[in-house]
Amino acid sequence: MAEHSGYRRPAATFRTENVVARSRFIATITPVETVDQAKAFLAAIQAEMPDANHHVYAYVVGHGSSVIEGMSDAGEPSGSAGPPVMAVLRGSKLGDTLIVVTRYFGGTKLGVGGLVRSYSDAARAALAGVTTEERIPRVRLAINLPYPLYERVTRLVAAQEGAIETTAFATDVALTVVLPERNLDLFQSELQELSAGRVQAEVLPGNT
Q: Which CATH code fits 7-134?
């Protein structure tokens, strides 16, 4: 899959609960677009359930070759909680996803194998229940063009599934455009063709 093609991610926050030997495993899954968002959501879960014994988590931000990952056993035996949740999350092929599995200890020790199974099952339950949506990476462009090209460029933007965010009329017309990243090369080529090489879009920092 090309790095700039679309991918699936959670459409909204979803929560489910499993009980194993009286221990409660509450799995919360949510979309996150940055590491800071993941940390903030984790902090909110910790504040919501401050009396829980563990808040295990795994997240992936982005997708494909540009992914950032993070996980924690959160006080469980090393490798028994965070890595199993991460393994299930990776297997789902979702991007921009955080799973937090909150455990209330029920008085019976599960052992490392039991913890691996319980955390894996909790993550699978969250993934099975969550609704997903397609995330299409987009780029923001700045375009300066002469007035005679304005109508043709607006049609070109629409044809390439883009949207005009801002328009400023001065000596020339200054546009800010948001466009699916997968359409950028074709858009630039067609823009060059209709302007006889006089206009090229500038890709602004960051994407959406």
A: 3.30.230.30
| Cα–Cα distance, 197 to 208 (Å, whole number) | 27
Where in the chain are all domains bearing CATH 3.30.230.30? 7-134
**Who contacts 154 (Cβ-Cβ below 8 Å, separation ≥6)?**
164
Which amino acid is located at 50 in the chain? Answer: P
H or E segment and range at residue 87? helix 82-92
The pLDDT value recorded for residue 208 is: 61
| Contact assessment for residue 175 and residue 143, using Cβ atoms and an 8 Å cutoff | yes
Per-residue model confidence (pLDDT) at position 5: 62
Question: Mean pLDDT across the stretch 140-150?
Answer: 95
Length of the chain: 208
Per CATH, domain 137-207 is 3.30.70.240: yes
Residue 3's pLDDT is 46
User: Residues 146-187: pLDDT tens digits?
Assistant: 999 999 999 999 999 899 999 999 999 999 999 988 899 999
Closest-CA residue to 145 (of 174, 102, 106, 166): 174
Complete DSSP assignment for 10-52: ESS-EEEEEEETTEEEEEEEEE-SSHHHHHHHHHHHHHHSTT-
Nearest to 7 by CA among 33, 25, 44, 34: 33
CA dist., res. 5 & res. 144, Å (int): 27
Above 70 in pLDDT, residue 1? no
Task: Determine the average pLDDT of the residues in 189-200.
Answer: 93
